[in-house]
Amino acid sequence: MSKKKCIGKASSSAGGWGAxxxxxQSLMGSGKPVKGAxxxxxxxxxxxxxxxxxxxxxxxxxxxxxxxENGVKAVSWEATSSRVGPEFFAEHPVSELxxxxxxxxxxxxxxxxxxxxxxDTDRYEEVSxxxxxxxxxxxxxxxxxxxxxxxxxxxxxxxxAAFLYQMxxxxxxxxxxxxxxxxxxxxxxxxxxESIGIGKGTVLLEDFEKCDLIYCVGxxxxxxxxxxxxxxxxxxxxxxxxxxxxxxxxxxxxxxxxPQDKLEMIRGGSAPTSTDYYRPRLGxxxxxxxxxxxxxxxxxxxAQAEGKPSVLDLDFIAEHTHDFEQYCDLVRxxxxxxxxxxxxxxxxxxxxxxxxYLAADKVITTWAMGITQHLHSVQMIQxxxxxxxLKGNIGREGAGLCPVRGHSNVQGDRTVGINEKAPKPLxxxxxxxxxxxxxxxxGHNVAEAIGAMLQGSAKAFIALGGNFARAVPDSxxxxxxxxxxxxxxxxxxxxxxxxxxxxxxxxVLPCLGRTEIxxxxxxxRQMITVEDSMSMVHxxxxxxxxxxxxxxSEVRIIxxxxxATLGSDVVNWDELSENNDLIRDMIARVxxxxxxxxxxxxxPRGFWLRNSASCREWNTPTKLANFGISELRSQTEWQxxxxxxxxxxxxxxxxxxxxxxxxxxxxxxxxxxxxxxxxVFINKDDVEEIGFKDGDLVDVVGTYDDGHHRECKGFRIVSxxxxxxxxxxxxxxMNELVPHHTVGEKSFTPTSxxxxxxxxAHKQ
Length: 764
Ligand SMILES: Nc1nc2c(c(=O)[nH]1)N[C@H]1C(S)=C(S)[C@@H](COP(=O)(O)OP(=O)(O)OC[C@H]3O[C@@H](n4cnc5c(=O)[nH]c(N)nc54)[C@H](O)[C@@H]3O)O[C@H]1N2
Ligand SMILES: Nc1nc2c(c(=O)[nH]1)N[C@H]1C(S)=C(S)[C@@H](COP(=O)(O)OP(=O)(O)OC[C@H]3O[C@@H](n4cnc5c(=O)[nH]c(N)nc54)[C@H](O)[C@@H]3O)O[C@H]1N2
Ligand SMILES: [Mo]
Known about the structure:
By secondary structure, this protein is of the alpha/beta class. It has 31 helices and 31 strands. The protein has three domains: about 260 residues, Rossmann fold (3-Layer(aba) Sandwich); about 220 residues, Dimethylsulfoxide Reductase, domain 2 (3-Layer(aba) Sandwich), CATH 3.40.228.10; about 120 residues, Beta Barrel (Barwin-like endoglucanases). About 0% of the residues have low confidence. Bound molecules: ligand MGD (2 copies) and molybdenum atom. The site of molybdenum atom has 4 residues, from loops. Pfam families: Molybdopterin, Molydop_binding.
């Protein structure tokens, strides 16, 4: 990590030597040598472990890790030899640790012992596992209403752990399942379920090898899904078009140097990852896609008038879709003026991009947080679907929808039942399996859990991984709410700020990570499973000796809490915690889509969970793929700040050196920022207009008039190539500015990519 704070030259392409150098630094971890090299050789191997880096699919096990800087960082961060044990906690009171940065906390290494917070000494102190389980059970059983407990899940939890967890929580009596997905791809799930009857993407990795055009929308794969760059680059290489829509010029979406290609590395070469690049304003993508549909429908009118063949797939539309005519009326009724103003693109640009679509036979659209974290994300995604339906680009080879998931098993966690909406088929099947009644009322998502915490009605909080306190909006308000709770429990690998927001009774329970050997009491090795963005399910078994003898698998920890809380009358928790095969058998009984789960998962590349939409089977109420009928918003946040002095729309995103709230280092190489994270990226004309210059410090102030003052003080201005009126900064630092009550319509996802703020001169 560089010590000096500076804004310098950005890398010329993504990947390459910069990636290797960064990988080298990662392998050094926190200064102590790690088992990195050997560990990495087993990453994504048929009998190795699944990369905890992201949810992009694996082409074939065994060849991916070398060029994936993200994966290397994630693995070496976990496989460090530094330890945070009882001595560490004896030395550092919690009030002191609270003053540390996210980076410094996690850098201390792996948690090693179950710990309980002692208010008298202000320290976490060692307890036995049984004491922890009994203590947690006592608090949970004290609550007069199980709905007063919140059970959070972060997307690294395995299918087995997540399934066991949801079974425990539902038997305990609630569907309160706030999870990281609520802050992430929830809008994709909601939109796709309504439109095509399944909340998942419809493509396989192989489809990328066959398509003619990829729209890559609102995502930064160079940092967040580096293995996707190779896919994009190959597509460009074989003559497909890759059309990017991104508010910023992201390095990885221009050129990529493949660190696996020795010749290219030596020559300093790189190859393009896109062919066309457009830069809509924040929140402007629905207008872009509406505009493109307008061009396509105009082309259809023209073709019909001239007696030429249709440009649409009329057979598909007739056989498979609902509300096409209504959609056509809506598109025709939307004015170009509104489309241009909202999107930030010209009519010519939109026409150009739509013509690519008209010319292409097989089209894939991918997207991530630049699309899902707005107020109207659900409608925006449905507009993408509408556009894709026009030419039947869903459910055939080389074409389809691809929401690119974040956490490595966030999709699988949902499939096995982490869902506050309590899906009826799942609850029915669970009741049948267990022979008892399961609650059916909807539980809390993240936004509702925050609401309950702030009101004081939530009394207990248990987290299966993650860093809720830092990942959520209004983070300092939420942190304070934690201190009023009766019980807070974190099952985690590394210490983070969430663990320091202690309730009356608090535990930190250390678990095995993906890289570590998971063995039961007889020493028999256990495997877990995960599901990637392409619905491929595969096994994962760690190879490293666990960071401490005390560590337990997530499965064993959940079983321990469950047994202490509920007893073993309904479920034999001990038996399940000894053998993950038994959990998989149970999953397959409850969710038949897994088929012969244990057999399937032992195939070399795992297996594919059948996706109804990709087979053109539409599990919607109309039994058809629905065109989503929503007008453009009358005003996006960007439009609302026009003419207001010093007021901007802020997007909060990731630097190149972080994994969500885990900060690996202080550099953002691809954006030319080194050694500093408290920055705001602004268009240089905007900087000038508001009377500042590059490098000046500003206070970024929230403008929502709801009685809570939001401010990030002393952030440094970085002049950047970004549309006027739009600014950007890093999460989680800027979560202070995201109001918890501005959430997406129907998705309830915090609007982390469109926050209205004002920039004031910095005051001490
Ligand atoms: N190294 C690393 N890998 C990760 C993560 C990490 O933190 N670090 N996090 C993981 C997780 S959980 C997730 S969800 C994914 C996140 O993956 P991404 O979605 O790539 O994450 P962000 O950094 O939030 O980047 C958002 C991108 O969208 C663009 N954007 C923002 N608003 C708009 C808009 O309105 N329109 C358009 N067209 N573009 C917009 C931004 O300029 C930026 O390039 O990555 C996963 N992988
Ligand atoms: N402003 C703003 N806020 C955002 C976002 C944004 O773009 N902008 N993005 C949102 C998104 S997309 C997401 S997904 C959320 C992320 O929210 P979370 O998933 O809650 O956060 P992470 O930072 O991924 O969690 C990191 C912690 O997970 C623990 N951990 C790591 N590996 C394991 C493991 O194997 N098992 C267990 N039990 N614990 C483990 C470690 O203790 C580590 O400190 O944040 C959201 N918040
Ligand atoms: Mo995410």
